[in-house]
Design brief:
Elements lengths: L4 H6 L2 H21 L12 H21 L2 H6 L1 H18 L1 E3 L2 E7 L2 E3 L1 H18 L7 H21 L3 H17 L4 H26 L2 H11 L10 H12 L26 H34 L3 H25 L17 H19 L7
Antiparallel strand pairs: 1-2, 2-3
Length: 374
């Protein structure tokens, strides 16, 4: 197989390097946070599993780069339909775990369709907006809202997966704003939001939210209401971050994770473990890597050769940005706990796979910006 030298030269090594640096930090933190309490005891397999998923993710990423991103645009509705189908399968025959029905088991393998759905949603959103002539009027918005808004949001909330639902809702609105919404539409959305929040809030609280989700919101509003109960998780997270101070306690010297004080220390709250060990200095380095990645994604959108590529890169940047800010805010008590992982750092096979597919699409758009239209 011949290697195109131009592809190697134009390949976005910077984006890949930033992602790999964050992933390696995540691997090290997973290893530290899941190490046994007693020296010499058996290490939990999370580190090895995450490493395998990163290797698989890299392989799928290169496959994604190999195929022209316009191919994904041509088959966007089919890809989106498969994503919706998997969400329906989850509701019908999904496996329960931690109070939610989010996983499909095939033999001894389990995966989370909502993570893969993120990619199909971004692809169809990019195609839809690229074919729409701006500005987005009220009529145009109402036409796209059921298929691209209400149906996926409802299926995700039903699982429930509020984290993914809120993230995709945020990406949807941000991408529409980027396509230029009519001022009248923006005013209507703001007004409807203000009026409907109390009404919809009561419905969600009584009919949709489970007990653990209500407890998370209560703990966010008042962490001291039950420090040893519903507020325990958030308080331990803030203790871990605060105890890291400026330079941290040092790698493998943190206590909140390995001594089981902090639940979900290798998934949603992995930043708390990282901040305890590396302190403010290490956290700033991590933030710079994420900001560099997001700025690179926005630059890719700016330099894309067509509207589909631009909105594809832009939506991916919005998605990772929302995930990053929500997760960090969640661990610091600035936002309610909604089960949003930290991209490339948190443990999770399907999430790692979908994240690397998204990176592949980003690199794909940037790599082909020099090609002629066809």
């Amino acid at each position: 197989m011949q290697v195109d030298r131009r592809s190697i030269k134009n390949f976005d090594w910077l984006t890949l390097g930033l992602v790999m640096a964050i992933s390696i930090m995540g691997l090290l933190t997973i290893y530290s946070s899941t190490r046994p309490e007693v020296e010499g005891a058996r290490q939990a397999p999370y580190f090895i599993k995450q490493l395998i998923w990163i290797v698989v993710g890299l392989f799928v990423m290169f496959l994604t780069v190999k195929a022209d991103y316009q191919w994904f645009g041509r088959f966007a509705w089919i890809i989106y339909g498969l994503g919706i189908f998997l969400l329906l399968v989850v509701l019908a025959k999904g496996r329960m775990g931690m109070g939610a029905q989010r996983w499909i088991s095939v033999g001894g393998f389990s995966f989370q369709p909502s993570e893969l759905f993120r990619i199909s949603f971004i692809i169809i959103l990019a195609r839809y907006l690229s074919e729409m002539r701006p500005p987005i009027t009220i009529v145009k918005f109402l036409k796209m809202l059921p298929v691209l808004g209400l149906i996926p949001f409802g299926l995700l909330v039903k699982q429930p997966d509020l984290g993914t639902a809120c993230t995709m809702g945020g990406v949807f609105l941000a991408a529409c704003l980027a396509r230029k919404m009519e001022k009248k539409l923006v005013a209507v959305l703001v007004l409807v939001g203000i009026i409907s929040v109390p009404f919809l809030g009561d419905i969600f609280w009584d009919d949709f939210l489970k007990d653990y989700q209500r407890n998370r919101i209560v703990a966010f509003m008042d962490p001291e209401v039950d420090p040893a109960g519903i507020g325990y998780h958030l308080n331990q997270s803030k203790i871990a971050i605060g105890s890291g101070m400026i330079l941290g306690k040092g790698y493998m010297h943190g206590t909140q994770g390995p001594f089981r004080f902090l639940p979900e220390k290798h998934t949603d709250f992995i930043f708390s473990v990282f901040a305890e060990e590396w302190g403010l200095a290490g956290s700033l380095v991590l933030f710079l890597l994420y900001f560099g990645f997001l700025l690179r994604a926005l630059d890719t959108a700016r330099k894309a050769k067509d509207d589909f590529g631009a909105f594809l890169a832009l939506s991916i940047a919005f998605m990772f940005g929302i995930y990053f800010f929500f997760n960090i805010g969640m661990t610091m008590g600035m936002m309610p706990v909604v089960g949003i992982p930290l991209p490339f750092m948190s443990y999770g096979g399907t999430a790692i796979l979908s994240n690397f597919i998204a990176v592949g699409l980003l690199i794909n758009v940037r790599l082909r910006r020099f090609e002629l239209f066809y």
